[in-house]
Amino acid sequence: MKKGLLSFAFLILFAGLLAGCGAANDESATGNKEKIVIGYFPNINHVPAMVAKDQALYEEQLGDGTTVEYRTFADGGAFMTALKTGDVDAGLVGPGPAMNNYTTGADVKIIAGASTGGTVVLAREGVEINSPEDFAGKVFATPAVGCTHDVQYETYLQESGITSERIGGTMKHLPGNPATYSALLQSGKIDIAVAPEPWAAVIEYETGAEVVIPWNEVSFGETLPASVMVTSGKLASENPELVQKIIDAHKEAVQFIEDNPEEAKAITLKDIEETTGQGLEKKVVDLAWERIGFTYEVDQDAVQAFADSSYALKFLKEQPDFTNLIDKQFINSQKTASK
């Protein structure tokens, strides 16, 4: 791996951990927020937040009386902790952490989609994968046990009767930060990397690893949100006008990406470099961009199917019902707050 990308990998984690700390937001006597904190990750699936930040879309929607602060996180667990403690008001996170926390009683609502796709399965150079059966006995890495990418990969293989050692199969699982996958592949410690973008593109360019399950063939690859906009149920019910303004800004960001892809890429490169202190190569972003779609819509059926699969794979102890997890009233609203 190139030195610059290696430094970037570790700085991503460091910057995210630092950003996880912070005080709760102030509230005025009328209940209107004087400060809104938006959380996101410095990766390609979270571009809508980067664009909204760069274009001051939240600030324009919320008005002069509200200060907007942005915080980045290294993983979904850290983000969800901040949401539960009130250290962030809304932001982007993978659907897996949102679902898992909801099943344990967390006050969380998915109020919009943000992106789809972006999960790529790669095999170490020299590892022959010609059919699903070839994954048996291999060591694979995902960001966490039961995370979005883990469930997508294991669902895909379960259809061929291949499962991990966790549930009696032969695949060995090594969860960990995607920033380390290139080194793990090159050292032979893992055979398979199940990587979100931009890590998949970095791995492909820097290690010679081969894509063996493309983003649009892995389970739920084209339908499941890769990232979603969430907030607390309390904020959604007590201050719906504020949440509507957040969603209006989010929708503008998604439209900006569709209308101005090259400018959105430039914003992404700038934001990642400013957040982590290290930049990505343009070719990495270009490749990752081809594997991701950006949308504020959210497929409720896909979310429930994903949850059912999580239960079938024994990541969840009880059959989940996410009827009340997703609240579409804000994305369905035709009213956009005036700027």
From TrEMBL:
Where in or outside the cell it occurs: the entry states:
Cell inner membrane; Periplasm
Q: Does the keyword DNA-binding apply?
A: no
What does the UniProt keyword field contain? Answer: Cell inner membrane, Cell membrane, Membrane, Signal, Transport
Q: Where is the signal peptide?
A: 1-19
What's the domain of life for this entry? Bacteria
One example of the protein's molecular function in GO is: ATPase-coupled transmembrane transporter activity
Annotated GO CC locations: periplasmic space; plasma membrane
Annotated NCBIfam families: SsuA_fam
The UniProt entry's sequence similarity note says: Belongs to the bacterial solute-binding protein SsuA/TauA family.
Under what name is this protein listed? NitT/TauT family transport system substrate-binding protein
Q: Which organism is it from?
A: Mesobacillus persicus
